[in-house]
Amino acid sequence: MTARGRLVTIEGIDGAGKTTLAGGLAAALRERGIDVLALREPGGVALAEQIRALVMDPAHAVAPRTEALLYAAARAELVAEQLEPAIAAGRFVLLDRFVDSSLAYQGAGRELGVQEIARLNEFATGGLRPDRTLLLVIDPAVGRARRGEQADRIELEADAFFARIDAAYRSLAVADPERVRVLNATLAPRELLAAAVVELADLLAR
Predict the structure, then answer these.
(1) What is the C-alpha separation between 96 and 102, in angstroms, rounded?
(2) Architecture of domain 6-204
(3) Are 143 and 184 in contact (CB under 8 A)?
(4) Distance from CA of residue 117 to its chain's centroid?
(5) In the chain, domain spans
(6) pLDDT at position 189, please?
(7) What pLDDT score does 150 carry?
(8) How many Cβ atoms are within 10 Å of 182's Cβ, its own excluded?
(9) Which of 192, 15, 140, 153 is nearest to 71 (CA)?
(10) Staple 117 to which of 17, 41, 107, 143, CB 3.0 to 4.6 Å?
(11) Is the dihedral of CA 59, 40, 196, 165 positive or negative?
């Protein structure tokens, strides 16, 4: 019988360096002989990638509840097509964003309510939860400076929006310290990668 795989998610505000860490971490784990499936959200499957293009397009005005539902729909399809089958097959799944993003962005940032968004995503994911979440923490102003000029619809939001998101992420880490491990996103990429590997050591040893 194949042992169930692992789901590790990477979270943080825009500009925190999630994508860079995800790429480095996937490469580091593969060097150790670990079968890694690296995916991003929203995306990872054809339908979810189409939703991603729609919801991030600055040309579209998207109501907050519509936004939350679109992200949940993309997530539901990713779980069904990729996450559950890969985890059941014993693979190590590394995911750039998951439910915590919606809790922070739509629940707190859009002020729809963290608990309301949690219930929506419990349905969308069938209750799937990460084994570990790496939360990259950075001052929102620094994150904005890192993003540069090519901003998507979400990245164009005001500073107060990202301040609410940052506060929500920090609250999630306090509430669930065993799952959510906080990393200093201002570290040099090599140092950040090393810190991430340390926080995954117990999962990698099993």
Answers:
(1) 13
(2) 3-Layer(aba) Sandwich (3.40)
(3) no
(4) 15
(5) 6-204
(6) 94
(7) 63
(8) 18
(9) 153
(10) 107
(11) positive
pTM (two decimals) = 0.95
Query: What are 108's two structure tokens?
Result: 């707190």
Give the max Cα distance, the chain: 50
Query: b/e for 86-102, b at 16 or more Cβ within 10 A?
Result: bbeeebbbbbbbbbbbb
CA distance 43 to 66: 17
Residue 144's pLDDT is: 82
| Residue 110 CA: distances (Å) to CA of 11, 78, 101, 196 | 17, 23, 12, 29
Mode of pairing for the β-strands spanning 132-137 and 36-40: unpaired
Say whether 205 sits in a helix, a strand or coil: coil
Local structure of 181: helix, strand or coil: strand
Residue among 8, 1, 57 nearest 181 (CA): 8
Question: Beta-carbon neighbour count of residue 52 at 10 Å?
Answer: 19
- Do residues 51 and 74 lie in contact, with contact meaning Cβ atoms separated by under 8 Å? yes
Using one digit for the tens of pLDDT, what is the confidence trace for 112-123? 999 999 999 999
Distance CA 147, CA 160 (A): 17
**Amino acid of residue 32:** R
Q: How would you classify the pairing of strands 132-137 and 92-96?
A: unpaired
